[in-house]
Design goal:
Layout: H1 9-22, H2 35-42, H3 46-58, E1 62-65, E2 69-72, E3 79-83, H4 89-95, E4 100-111, H5 114-120, E5 127-137, E6 140-150, H6 167-175, E7 180-189, H7 193-199, E8 207-215, E9 221-229, E10 234-238
Parallel strand pairs: 3-10
Antiparallel strand pairs: 1-2, 4-5, 5-6, 6-9, 7-8, 8-9
Length: 240
């Protein structure tokens, strides 16, 4: 393989092999060429090949097996997620017939910080609930979301968090309203180490971050959230 920049050789090799997998040259559970074969094929040293394999492993294309080589992983079709004013995780999963869970990792009550006050239009000293929620399907983690709620709008929220299964179910059943998405900001970024562990991905693999503001049907801001999402497990459709 010829290139003017040796620093991208491993990227070119990885992209070539991924293309081969996509085209069916290497199928699920099939072994890809050995390190020695790849070194000869691309006329590079073992270090470059190992970098290429490490990249493919991090991106979820192959799994190395000690002493046996690398095998193509099962190719998982990304889940389509509709992003609209009425988006709910549970409804998105149910519409596709996918089993899902939502787990409350932690919660706390405290005084709103500057960013929280600005987004939720709160007075200084106002108190909020902060929740960390992990959502999964088929026991595979999909996202971790930090959600901030004004305490004044959700009195005694803590009494409804036992046996948590859905935040929006609490909104509807206990507080009798359904939030409406006002805006979302979507960007790709690298995960924090904590999120990488929760999502079961290397910290070098980018995630999709969605910062959202939800309004009460009456118009006031009611929920501010930041979701960190596995990009390899999702594809988004935005409805207008």
């Amino acid at each position: 393989m010829k290139t003017q920049d040796d620093g991208v050789l491993h990227l070119e090799i990885a992209e070539y092999l991924i293309k081969q997998i996509r085209q069916g040259v290497f199928s699920e559970n099939q072994k890809i060429p050995s390190e020695n074969d790849l070194c000869r094929q691309f006329q590079v040293n073992r270090h470059v090949v190992r970098q290429a394999i490490a990249r493919m492993t991090n991106l979820g294309w192959v799994t190395p097996v000690q002493g046996r080589g690398c095998y193509v992983n099962q190719l998982v079709e990304p889940i389509q997620y509709v992003l609209s004013s009425q988006t709910r995780f549970s409804e998105n999963m149910e519409s596709q017939g996918l089993p899902y869970t939502a787990k409350l990792l932690s919660w706390e009550e405290g005084i709103a910080g500057d960013e929280e006050r600005a987004n939720l239009e709160l007075a200084e000293g106002a108190r909020v609930y902060r929740l960390e929620i992990m959502r999964s399907t088929d026991d595979n983690p999909l996202s971790v979301t930090s959600t901030v709620l004004p305490k004044e709008e959700f009195p005694d929220l803590e009494t409804h968090l036992t046996n948590f299964s859905s935040l929006y179910r609490i909104f509807i059943e206990q507080y009798r309203f359904r939030p409406i998405r006002k805006k979302s900001i979507v960007q790709a970024c690298l995960p924090l180490l904590k999120d990488a562990k929760l999502l079961d991905i290397p910290e070098s693999v980018p995630i999709v971050q969605i910062e959202s503001l939800m309004n009460h049907p009456g118009g006031a801001p009611i929920e501010y959230s930041v979701a960190r999402i596995r990009g390899d497990r999702h594809k988004y459709m935005i409805e207008f």
